[in-house]
């Protein structure tokens, strides 16, 4: 077998110990130009450092990736596997887009065979882009969760997923609604029991978003979260202005959209809120105090015209932030393409602030976001996100010469940050030479 463990992967290694911040704090990241990544037979990192310093006890079969960049597997903190069919659907903003394109497709996931087939295609698409962990939305159907988790488990991947909860018309159409709160609770309990902490899987309570859940359903979700404190919670928050206005019109006692979730007991350390574009400082303080995460989804926010996420404000408030592709509203499965758009969204948002306070997204901070930052947002950084000894060895091999323009830009780059920035802006799925899950090759370009 050509990917038998233990093994040592030789190449340029880059990983992060924490957020390098706006000034690329040199203590926050490690770069080994001729590096060695030693993986044990259990698929975990044994040692990472300079090739010349590799201790004898970690010597094993060598896989030679010299001239390529090895980084931890990308973490996509927000994506819908159920929308695999309808990415690139034209011309609508959030709520119309859901009714026109998303719901008719999600209806098909009541069929287990269909859900399994799409799960397989979806996971292939992720690994081909270097993504090894994701916060995934299925549909309202229990079988859509079974199908997805079964496929992810067979591939040994670390994944977060949970049945979508939705029961309030018109934002949950009748053909996609839970039959009642007790039934939705019962199904969720069964799924938690079946899948949570099975191998590398994490269950997430997943109310689609406040408009599509009844008050009783939101309260039930909060009760389950209290009962099972180590499961995750994922939902959408303040994605577009009309959506945010509709939430405030319905929940007249709530101070803000986030407060609706807070009152239901859904704002906790393992909660991840997608988008969070239209929030204020008080919301940011609350999210930071709770230890909750935000999934920043730039391609989706641009595609649906939802608005510009304030990345700098979220990070300076101390909120955990990861990147999400949010496909099918997002336009690419590639985290490199997502970083490219994140850079631009941040530029545009910062241009509205006084010059002295502006920030930009450096390549180092971008790669932090796509790896350890995502793991922190999903509260999985004990397991994944960097090459510390004991971490699960999910990693990606990136090619500096994937396209002619990238090759040229690479050749004339003056230093590593410039080189990495070229990859962040010009790279895409063509840059992914190989993707490894627990030390085993899950994707190879050739
Ligand atoms: Zn979404």
Descriptive labels:
about 450 residues; alpha/beta; Urease, subunit C, domain 1; TIM Barrel; 2 domains; nine-stranded parallel β-sheet; seven-stranded mixed β-sheet; 14 helices; about 35% helix; binds zinc ion
Task: Walk me through this protein's architecture.
The protein has two domains: 7-72 and 385-444, Urease, subunit C, domain 1 (Roll); 74-352, Metal-dependent hydrolases (TIM Barrel, Alpha-Beta Barrel). The two termini are 17 Å apart. Strand 11 (271-275), helix 8 and strand 12 form a beta-alpha-beta unit. The radius of gyration is 21 Å and the shape is globular. The protein is built from 14 helices and 16 strands. The chain has helices at residues 94-106, 112-128, 142-154, 181-195, 215-227, 241-250, 257-263, 281-290, 298-303, 311-316, 335-350, 363-377, 404-411, 416-426; strands spanning 7-16, 29-39, 45-50, 61-72, 74-80, 131-137, 158-161, 164-165, 201-207, 232-237, 271-275, 293-296, 320-323, 395-398, 432-437, 440-444. Strands 5, 6, 7, 8, 9, 10, 11, 12 and 13 form a nine-stranded parallel sheet that branches. It has a seven-stranded mixed sheet with strand order 3-2-1-4-14-15-16. Helix 2 crosses helix 3. The protein has 446 residues and is α/β, with parallel strands linked by helices. The model has no long low-confidence stretch (mean pLDDT 97). The structure holds zinc ion. The site of zinc ion has 5 residues, from strand 5. Zinc ion is lined by residues 78, 80, 236, 274, 326.
């Amino acid at each position: 077998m050509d990917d038998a463990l233990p093994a040592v992967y030789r190449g340029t290694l880059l990983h992060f110990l924490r957020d390098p911040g706006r000034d690329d704090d040199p203590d926050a990241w490690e770069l080994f130009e001729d590096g060695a990544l030693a993986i044990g037979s259990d698929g975990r990192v044994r040692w990472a450092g300079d090739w010349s310093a590799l201790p004898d006890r970690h010597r094993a079969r060598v896989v030679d990736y010299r001239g390529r960049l090895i980084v931890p597997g990308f973490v996509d903190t927000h994506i819908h596997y159920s929308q695999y069919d309808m990415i690139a659907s034209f011309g609508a903003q959030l709520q119309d887009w859901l009714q026109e394109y998303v719901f008719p497709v999600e209806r098909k996931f009541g069929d287990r065979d269909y859900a399994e087939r799409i799960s397989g295609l979806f996971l292939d698409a992720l690994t081909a882009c270097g993504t090894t962990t994701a916060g995934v939305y299925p549909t309202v159907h229990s079988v859509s969760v079974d199908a997805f988790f079964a496929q992810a488990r067979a591939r040994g991947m670390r994944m977060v997923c949970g049945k979508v909860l939705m029961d309030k018309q018109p934002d949950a159409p009748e053909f996609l609604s839970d039959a009642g709160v007790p039934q939705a609770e019962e199904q969720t309990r069964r799924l938690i029991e079946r899948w949570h902490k099975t191998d590398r899987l994490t269950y997430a309570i997943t109310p689609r978003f406040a408009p599509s859940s009844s008050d009783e359903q939101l309260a039930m979700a909060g009760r389950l979260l209290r009962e099972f404190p180590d499961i995750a919670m994922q939902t959408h928050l303040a994605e577009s202005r009309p959506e945010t206005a509709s939430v405030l019109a319905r929940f007249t006692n709530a101070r803000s959209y986030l407060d609706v979730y807070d009152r239901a007991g859904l704002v906790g350390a393992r909660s991840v809120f997608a988008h969070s574009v239209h929030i204020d400082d008080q919301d940011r303080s609350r999210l930071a105090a709770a230890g909750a995460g935000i999934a920043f989804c730039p391609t989706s926010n641009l595609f649906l015209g939802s608005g510009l996420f304030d990345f700098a404000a979220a990070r300076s408030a101390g909120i955990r932030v990861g990147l999400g592709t949010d496909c099918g509203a997002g336009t690419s499965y590639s985290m490199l393409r997502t970083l490219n758009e994140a850079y631009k969204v941040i530029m545009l948002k910062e241009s509205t602030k006084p010059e002295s306070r502006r920030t930009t997204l450096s390549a180092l901070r971008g790669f932090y976001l796509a790896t350890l930052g995502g793991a922190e947002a999903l509260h999985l950084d004990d397991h994944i996100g960097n090459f510390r000894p004991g971490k699960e060895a999910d990693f990606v091999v990136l090619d500096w010469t994937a396209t002619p323009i990238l090759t040229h830009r690479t050749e004339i780059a003056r230093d590593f940050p410039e080189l990495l920035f070229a990859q962040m802006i010009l790279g895409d799925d063509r840059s992914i030479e190989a993707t490894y899950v627990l030390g085993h090759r899950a994707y190879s370009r050739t």
